[in-house]
Amino acid sequence: RSGRTRETAFSKDYDELAQIMKYERANKGHIVWVLGSSISMDDRTRFNFSQIIKSGYVNAVITGNTMATVDLMKGLKTDNPFVQERASDSRTETLPDYITISKVREKGSIKKSVEDKIVEDGIMKTLVDNNIPFVIAGSIRDRYKLPETYNNAYEAQDAMRFHTRKATMLICLSSVLFTIASGNMTPSYNTFNGVTRPVYIYS
After folding, report:
1. Is 170 helix (H, G, I), strand (E, B) or coil?
2. Where does residue 174 fall: left (phi above 0), alpha (psi -120 to 50 degrees), or beta otherwise?
3. In 76-147, which residue ranges form alpha helices assigned H by DSSP?
4. Please, are residues 178 and 63 in contact by the beta-carbon 8 Å criterion?
5. Residue 138 and residue 156 in contact, taking contact as beta carbons nearer than 8 Å
6. What are 150's strand-pairing partners?
7. What contacts 119, CB < 8 A, 6 or more positions away?
8. How far apart are CA 203 and CA 194, in angstroms?
9. Per-residue confidence at 92, pLDDT binned at 50, 70, 90?
10. pTM score, two decimals?
């Protein structure tokens, strides 16, 4: 925090981040986002991140089963019988997650669920609609998983590494473990279009 005081607004950092993102988009960079589960729990954040995807600032997403599940749960059509069942059944707190995952597994994939229009909005739908790749890495704490979730840690690492090695910029939000894992896989410098330069990492 050189050249600042304790009172310096963090908006200065976000202004710098926005400028780098604009540069990356204009110069065919590869912006990889690492998202934790809280991103999908807030409706405004879900909407705003969907707008960021539509604006071309997302080239890949690395996340976990919970973020994707909560986002899909919030995005299920309100007239869907599964949503009505979810709302009326209070047997357990986690039942809505199970219903959502069951419905997606019935369809076979997140992509098919979006194509069949059972998901109305959200981050995962916007990723599918814009053909943006995503990696859902499994955790030992997951009790029930979406079809695309990597259960094998080595396969998950390979899938994550595929994107981090191409990254010109890595932006990590609200997940300590995924941030550490992705950061460890991201080179400090890389060669892009014949030019060697640093990879920007924001956490």
Report:
1. strand
2. left
3. 81-88, 95-107, 110-115, 123-129
4. yes
5. yes
6. 137
7. 72, 75, 76, 77, 110, 113, 125
8. 27
9. very low
10. 0.87
